[in-house]
Design brief:
This protein is an alpha/beta fold. Helices cover 34% and strands 26% of the residues.
């Protein structure tokens, strides 16, 4: 992809998002300005991730220059009208995985595109169905430490995901944390202008 004279800044600490950008062959730099990821309790589903990507972009508004494009992203697991973010501890990870066991949930990712005088975002939703999870399978997975930095306490790309996810609908890369095809399409639109 020809990024022309744009400097693309990925404002995400996620190693998975960084890898996707590398795989897309997009030259970028990474800069993360930490924000407290909180949202009004009145928000639900898609509105939560859209709020959070705006929040993550806010610190860049006063420092962004012409021909810079700051990309922010946020992923949540939405299940039974509840937002499941990253677990705070092992007990919370166990609760999340027990709740997801044998049921279907949505994984929603919003991606924000901030330019000097413009804001745009996209949102993608995928459906994931887990088989019934045994307490032993949950405990063994938590013991690996892998669930602790992932929304909903699991990574579809982990062996756990491979073993216990029954079916998915929608973008696979979205479930990992970035809807790659949709991001590429949006970037092409922005860079064409």
């Amino acid at each position: 992809m020809n990024t022309k004279s744009y400097e693309i800044i990925l404002a995400s600490g996620s190693p998975r998002r960084r890898a996707f950008f590398e795989d897309m062959g997009i030259p970028f730099t990474r800069k993360v300005i930490p924000v407290e990821e909180v949202f009004p309790k009145s928000l639900s589903g898609k509105a939560i991730v859209e709020h959070l990507v705006k929040l993550k972009a806010a610190p860049f508004k006063s420092i962004i220059k012409e021909k810079q494009l700051v990309i922010t992203a946020d992923t949540i697991v939405w299940h039974q009208n509840q937002c499941l973010g990253k677990p705070k501890n092992k007990r919370e990870a166990e609760q999340m995985l027990s709740t997801l066991s044998g049921s279907t949930h949505q994984v929603m990712t919003a991606v924000g595109f901030l330019q000097k005088d413009k804001w745009d975002s996209i949102c993608c939703s995928s459906e994931v169905r887990f088989t019934k999870l045994s307490p032993k399978a949950i405990d063994e997975y938590i013991a690996t430490g892998s669930p602790m930095d992932k929304a909903g306490a699991y990574g579809i790309q982990d062996s756990f995901g491979m073993l216990y996810i029954d079916s998915i609908q929608g973008s696979y890369t979205n479930i990992i944390g970035l809807p790659v095809a949709q991001v590429q399409k949006k970037l092409e639109e922005i860079l064409k202008k």
